[in-house]
Amino acid sequence: MSNQKKTAIVIGAGIVGIAMARSLASRGVIVTVIERNEQAIGASIRNFGMLWPIGQPDGYLYERAINSRSIWQQVLNDAHLWYDEVGSLHAAYNGLESQVLKDVSVTYEHRGYKYLNTTETIKRSNAVNPDGLEGALWSPNEMIIESRAAIQALPAYFTEKYGVKFLFNTAISRIEYPKVFSGNRSWSADYIYVCGGADFETLYPEVFAENNFTKCKLQMMRIIAQPDAWRIGPALCGGLSLIHYNSFKVSPSLDLLKKHFEQTMPEYLKYGIHVMVSQNGNGELTIGDTHEYGLHLDPFDRAELNDMIITYLKKFAIFKNWAITQSWNGTYPKRTNGEVDFVHQPVDGVTIVNGLGGAGMTLSFGLAEEIVSKSH
Fold this sequence. Notes:
Helix content: 25-40%
Oligomer: single chain
Number of strands: 21
Structural class: alpha+beta
Mean pLDDT: 97
Radius of gyration: 21 Å
Shape: globular
């Protein structure tokens, strides 16, 4: 890079845009982030706050997740924002679930995974339901952040640390490199990054239409802060999560478990329900979720799906207070061909960064580092 400072515009202030801004600015690029809303309000704030390396298979995706986690720690420490290195427990309540978790603990022993018996599991978390419990997979690598607070606070932090400029309430509707346009206003830069999340319709819609994109709607809820500062410890998951994440495909028993769920819980599979819970710094519990796919998704939540989440959650978790304080839905972009990111230049100087699915919080910082290190 020459001594003359380069400039970049990042469109979108969600986690992908934030990550791109950080990687660019830390290398001396003058960055402007342009966001259509008063603050990011999409999937980046509507999630569990889970940084979830356990969901990624060995190889570049796991390394990306671990790198992202390290960057998150640096950023959160520097910005004085809360996080909790709690790890995770996947609880088993039948022989098939137990066998899958044992297989995974052996294959991924290098990650620090361990299969725990019933007594060991309860010692890790007294929020695990002991009724019918056979054991659990322990991983030390998962971390919880409060995504709502972090995504809201990071723009000011990046402005102070790197001089990143943020323009909110500004919707970019057209790009003619090197310019971007919002109505009669325009800005120009050497590099333009389009990080629009689930908004496929505004910028380069034909690119998304040709590259195996759909959308995923999630229903989620939040449970009241637990009394007496009671903590659940690790993030908790049930057996349904084992068929959701590619990392668990290393188990030879996974297909049998999936067939078991197809026979015993077809409605859960129909709506892509797998159930997890995390706890924020205030003691509140975030629970979910469903997965419904399509370009045109029902904007209304279904109470019966929330009820299904609660019913299944009670099979593996016990809380002090189950009162629901919030429910919501979120939408994120998803590749239909199994790929887990989309980095594409529709024209010279413009790069689309999208398609991380439900792993945006886990992977974005690492992906941004990979992209920027290659081009800057």
